[in-house]
């Protein structure tokens, strides 16, 4: 995979993760807690993607 493609994927996933974190912050009854969990999983994938792209 080209480095530009990895960077584009990273940016898109990061944006999605940030939106999900923001939505879960405004969740008053806890019904959207799964969004924060999914955002954290995306964050983990971003870390792995970034680490792998540096190797």
Terminal CA distance: 13 Å
What is the average of the pLDDT values? 87
Order of secondary-structure elements:
HH
Radius of gyration: 13 Å
Question: What does it look like?
Answer:
The protein has two helices and no strands. By secondary structure, the chain is mainly α. Helix 1 (3-25) packs antiparallel against helix 2. It starts with a helix and ends with a helix.
What is this structure, in a nutshell?
This protein has 55 residues and is mainly alpha-helical.
Lay out the secondary structure:
Layout: H1 3-25, H2 33-54
What features would you highlight for this structure?
single chain, mainly alpha, 2 helices, 55 residues
């Amino acid at each position: 995979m080209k480095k530009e493609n990895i960077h584009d994927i990273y940016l898109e996933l990061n944006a999605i993760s940030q939106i999900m974190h923001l939505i879960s912050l405004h969740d008053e009854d806890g019904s959207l807690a799964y969004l924060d969990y999914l955002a954290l999983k995306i964050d983990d994938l971003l870390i792995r993607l970034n680490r792998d792209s540096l190797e």
